[in-house]
């Protein structure tokens, strides 16, 4: 196993992690921005007004994107298992 193989696996892992985190983080970002804008306009500064809709939106994003996220992780795991013989020098 050489340095390039380790770097390739590391970059692929970071890329998969970023793809899996994107739907949840972008949902929280958009909902948080919308609620902050609403709070600025109405001058209502309540913490739960920001937290509850954001938590609900993240749950919905997980329900919508959950199947895709699992299939991405399965594909990445299969790719890693397929690379094992080559990494050990057997193929």
TrEMBL record:
Among its keywords, does the record have Ribonucleoprotein?
no
Q: Which residues form a coiled coil?
A: none
Location in the cell: Cell membrane; Bacterial flagellum basal body
Q: Name one GO biological process term.
A: bacterial-type flagellum assembly
The record's keywords, sorted A to Z, are: Bacterial flagellum, Cell membrane, Cell projection, Cilium, Flagellum, Membrane, Transmembrane, Transmembrane helix
Give the UniProt entry's GO cellular component terms: bacterial-type flagellum basal body; plasma membrane
What is the membrane topology listed in the Swiss-Prot or TrEMBL record? Multi-pass membrane protein
* Protein role: Role in flagellar biosynthesis.
- Family of this protein: Belongs to the FliQ/MopD/SpaQ family.
Protein name, please? Answer: Flagellar biosynthetic protein FliQ
Source organism of this protein record: Arthrobacter echini
């Amino acid at each position: 196993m050489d340095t390039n193989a380790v770097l390739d696996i590391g970059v692929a892992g970071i890329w998969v992690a970023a793809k899996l985190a994107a739907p949840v983080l972008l949902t929280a970002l958009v909902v948080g921005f919308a609620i902050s804008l609403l709070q600025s306009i109405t001058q209502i500064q309540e913490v739960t007004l920001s937290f509850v809709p954001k938590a609900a939106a993240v749950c919905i994003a997980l329900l919508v994107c959950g199947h895709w996220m699992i299939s991405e992780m399965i594909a990445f795991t299969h790719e890693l298992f397929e690379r094992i013989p080559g990494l050990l020098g057997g193929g």
